[in-house]
């Protein structure tokens, strides 16, 4: 199921006197210090793979400091793994995934490359019930649902996206990660690893305010990072149980928990409820209803029980959206208050 694995691991990482792998940067004299050599693996999936399409949900805006697509088409990700910070570079060459990783989390990231790219997904269990959904699926044979195995890195930006425009949420994520995270290991100096739980907990109130994050969302993030271990434990649970655990934290509801497990678990049925736009898009695409609410969306997607998130994603990828009849959500910049 996971395809052919060619380990090709290079364990030649040079380590400093404190036992840590050097991360590049500059030597005391100001001379750029070369990044440590990466660990690597090669993996050939037994299905068509569209790398940007699969990994796209992890990108929080075009200037996300944890995610970048380079001009050669390679995808770069910076993550905080259970073993420490790590940077992963993925490139698709002739049907084979070339993976390179740096940092303390390199081995952890490389081991999970197949799952990240959809090896645990089972799209063959999905049966289209609408012509539009079938056509969307046919046009994108390389679509699979990713699984990161990490909860907080999807939970925190999802909290930041509550009740605000995407531009506001992306700006908050960008400022907080760049301001309080750390440079990612490896050669790409533009990437940053998101802060660890203790750092999130220590961000002063005015920094949240400067990033445009109101007290409610900031408090939700703080409550989540105080039980970070319990949050990350949810990665090993079935999606429904994981969502229930996340929702025990005040401020985390069905919308946020679904947005999280879609990425951390690759959950095919974790449909986003309470979204401002999704019900109307699904309603319009499948039934011509521009005023559909969550209840109408659930009725339309009932034939896809067990696969409702996949069905909704294929609807979104179809490009069939209702014409706009009202102004966009008003942007409120609390940093100017």
From TrEMBL:
It comes from the Bacteria. Keywords: DNA damage, DNA repair. InterPro entries: Alkylbase_DNA_Glycosylase/TA, DNA_glycosylase. Coiled coil: none annotated. Gene3D superfamilies: Hypothetical protein, domain 2. Residues 1-46 are annotated as: Disordered. This is 3-methyladenine DNA glycosylase.
């Amino acid at each position: 199921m996971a395809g052919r694995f060619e380990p090709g691991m290079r364990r030649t990482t040079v380590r400093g006197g404190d036992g840590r792998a050097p991360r590049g940067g500059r030597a005391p004299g100001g001379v750029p210090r070369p990044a440590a050599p990466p660990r690597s693996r090669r993996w050939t999936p037994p299905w068509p793979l569209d790398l940007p399409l699969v990994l796209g949900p992890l990108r929080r805006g075009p200037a996300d400091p944890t995610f970048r697509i380079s001009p050669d088409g390679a995808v770069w990700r910076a993550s905080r793994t259970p073993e420490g910070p790590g940077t992963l570079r993925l490139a698709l060459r002739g049907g084979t995934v070339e993976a390179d990783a740096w940092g303390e989390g390199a081995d952890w990231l490389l081991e999970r490359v197949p799952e990240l790219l959809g090896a645990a997904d089972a799209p063959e269990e999905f049966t289209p019930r609408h012509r539009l959904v079938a056509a969307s699926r046919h046009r994108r044979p390389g679509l699979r649902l990713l699984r990161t195995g990490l909860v907080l890195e999807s939970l925190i930006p999802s909290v930041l996206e509550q009740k605000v425009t995407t531009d506001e949420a992306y700006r908050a994520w960008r400022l907080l990660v760049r301001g309080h995270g750390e440079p990612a290991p490896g050669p790409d100096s533009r990437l940053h690893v998101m802060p660890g739980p203790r750092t999130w907990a220590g961000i002063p109130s005015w920094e949240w305010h400067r990033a445009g994050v109101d007290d409610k969302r900031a408090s939700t993030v703080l409550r989540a990072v105080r039980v970070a271990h319990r949050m990350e434990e949810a990665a090993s649970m079935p999606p429904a149980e994981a969502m229930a655990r996340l929702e025990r934290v005040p401020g985390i509801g069905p919308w946020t928990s679904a947005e999280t497990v879609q990425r951390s678990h690759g959950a095919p049925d974790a449909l986003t409820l309470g979204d401002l736009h999704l019900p109307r898009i699904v309603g319009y695409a499948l039934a011509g209803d521009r005023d559909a609410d969550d209840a109408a969306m659930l009725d339309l997607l009932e034939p896809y029980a067990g696969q409702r998130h996949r069905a909704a994603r294929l609807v979104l990828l179809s490009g069939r959206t209702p014409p706009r009849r009202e102004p966009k959500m008003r942007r409120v910049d609390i940093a100017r208050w």
